[in-house]
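Translate sequence into structure tokens.
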Amino acid sequence: MNTATVPTAVPALAPTRIRPVRQVAATLEPLWVRAGLIGIALIFLTLFLFVPLIAVFAEALKKGWDSYFDAIADPDALSAIRLTLLTAGIAVPLNLIFGVAAAWAIAKFEFRGKSILLTLIDLPFSVSPVISGLIYVLIFGAQGWIGPWLREHDIRILFAVPGIVLATIFVTFPFVARELIPLMQSQGSEEEEAALVLGASGWRTFWHVTLPNIKWGLLYGVILCNARAMGEFGAVSVVSGHIRGETNTIPLQVEILYNEYNFAAAFAVASLLALLALVTLALKSLVESRLHDTASEPSEQEH
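Result follows.
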């Protein structure tokens, strides 16, 4: 007689304990590597940033506060300060207008010559400021292309304020545009297109849609442009003529005082540029944090 095979009960397996996998970040380096890199960075900053800054203020105040303020209040120093502020006051707004227009055209539209325009915007980064100053001498100098015509009509470009402003504009015009172009490209043109579809004009779209989206990037570019305009030396040195009390900016005034072995006055005037650098760094850090917050807002909203 065939008997049915009764299946035997399978013993239950004991639950296995899964050990958590230890996750190691790909960028996690040994402590000695991180400490070494931080140490190298601190040494570099100390030697090339902190020590020069301390030396400038120490030498500026070496003879006391009275000597410091006398150097700043010198008529030639005041003239250099006024000329520097005037030059920056003209160059920065013009570069702001050009930078916004160029960035808007490049980021929002397709047209022939777009790559050429991008190349021309980068030109001051690849050309020495001294060379750019010599170009203005070639154009506006007494033996230049239009120099004789300017002399006949008693128009002074070189060795005067117009030449200094032109040289400053040339070396600083990429800063605003180069800051805005990638920002506007990353933002796209959907919001502007939506505003135009709803009936907004081009200017209204710019003021109420485009400008609020780029305001922190625009401010960042203006800060960098202003710092470069006030501290420019090479191009301005070529076209200014070093006329004391007339065509010397702050960097040129520092050079003259230093060459005359008037070290206390030279460092006193140089401390103004050092203070400008510190203010620029503080504003730059503030705007960078705002830019980071603005860039993280869309991802947080999507989440």
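Note: Residues 299-303 have pLDDT under 50 and may be disordered.
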